[in-house]
Amino acid sequence: MIYTIIPTILFVLASFTINRASFSETKTTKPVLYSKVVETNVEAKIESAYNNLHSSKFALPKLESFAVALKGYYSLKEKGLIKKEILTLIDFSLSSNTKRLWVINVITGDVLFNSLVAHGRNTGEEFASNFSNANESYKSSLGFYSTGEIYNGKHGMSLRLDGLEKGVNDNARARGVVMHAADYVSESFIKNNHRLGRSQGCPAVPVELSKDIINVIKDKSCFFIYHPSRDSKFGIKSIS
Q1: I need a surface site. Which of 68, 111, 120, 136 has the fewest CB within 10 A?
Q2: Who contacts 6 (Cβ-Cβ below 8 Å, separation ≥6)?
Q3: What is the mean pLDDT of each run of 10 residues along the chain (240 residues)?
């Protein structure tokens, strides 16, 4: 009798050990596989959103800058720091002689504006390369902002900006970094000076477009100034 029971007990113990080993293996490998799937999905969603951008009259931004901007947009939207489905992207890796500002409807993919935009006088000549959050630096600040309210200042209708990245651009309102119109942001200025005019750190735009752009992006929309020299802390958030 005992010789019959012992093989049965050994079989049961062996089966339990195998099941535990299988369960343990599944538990350790599953998160790694899931992480890869999530990463793939995020990149696929970004590429899909980029391919959905359209305009009959404007060029599109580069995928590299758009990807960082879109990740940040979704992160800020989730945190409640922005309210509108509007994304303003400025790509300071590009020449100031090119139209490097885009205003995009994130839901429809419509490119609403594509414009020249100035950088600060101490940020660089034709290309932007030096950035600061300090008062009276006359430099542009990178990163994500939430657009504020409209006011009338020395440049006429202007838009306040609230920097959302500590130590990078959170001094923007105190510095008076705003969007405003400037006559030195024009094709004629480029033609006469071989580069666009520069501001005291503000993202100045052409006079003829300023009011239209400001009215669309005002009141808590996402505003992002990109440069490949740094990664935004909001740029790593996954898109759900």
Answers
A1: 136
A2: none
A3: 52 50 47 52 89 95 97 95 98 98 98 98 98 98 98 97 97 98 98 97 98 98 96 54
